[in-house]
Amino acid sequence: MHKVSFHTQVLSPLMSYGSELKPELRATEIKALMRQTFRISHVLLDSKSLFIEESKWFGDVKTASSPISLQIKDKKEVCIRQNLLLHDRKSEEASNREMRCFSEATEFTLLLRGKNLLTADKFKEYQDLLRFSIYLGGIGRRSRRSRGAINFKDHMCANKEDLITFLMAMLDKFSPSCFIRKANMIISSSNPTNRPTIEKIEIGETLNEESIQQFLKAVDQASHDSRRKENGQLFATGAIKDRKITGSEKFASSLMVSLVKTKDQCIYPIYVFVKPVTGMKIYDNREEFLTYVEGGKS
Q1: What is the pTM of this model?
Q2: Angle at the Cα of 13 (from 12 to 16), degrees rounded to 5?
Q3: Helix, strand and coil in the chain, % to nearest 5
Q4: Over the stretch 165-176, which tens digit does the pLDDT of each residue have?
Q5: How many CA atoms lie within 13 A of 193 on its CB side?
């Protein structure tokens, strides 16, 4: 049995719950994040080919169980109460209830185990995928809006340059020769599949721990303001589809926002643009969203 431990720190309020809405750190959500990252990083495979490849990595119900498992242990949980949304317009609304969540003082150990059938090199690939996944996204509620970001304290990239190099290497592994780098951006040069895949990754300007709360507020404000242009419009940053017909069917945001910390103690926003796929016309307001956040976080 292979195993490795990751000393994990929460970077932004983590809203994950078990029964009766009790805050709970859940390893299953981290594994789900790994699968999602695996899917959106394969820009060339069609859905059928992707399913076959994903089954090789994670198993499936028909052929084999997963060759890896995750366990959370040695928890140091610090819970706080915080409004679900932080932007000004929602501060007094009943729907914006106060939630119990894990604060940035929360730490835990994440144990990754691999079955003996895995070679040492293959198990290292799972470790890299795990790191890659937590760089691109968080876990829990509003994870696409920079909540639930986590950091592996003993497996960090040295600095921003090292981070971008690692992201490029992982994308090139899953989708060879499909991405190019432009300064702080990584851009897909090929996106033929009709499913959500990475179009672009952009690293924002440096934050510190004191400015994270202001950043989260800017993200919530941008999420609200960037969708005000037309009533009922389907936006790339998320909306309700066929509002007048279905009333509640949601279109998930194709812009994921999270946080990454490097060894030099810098914290960076990371913006992941995912190909929006729907049968309806979409207003792409993602650049507008990013510009608002980068301008409003200071």
Answers
A1: 0.91
A2: 125
A3: 30, 25, 40
A4: 999 999 999 999
A5: 22
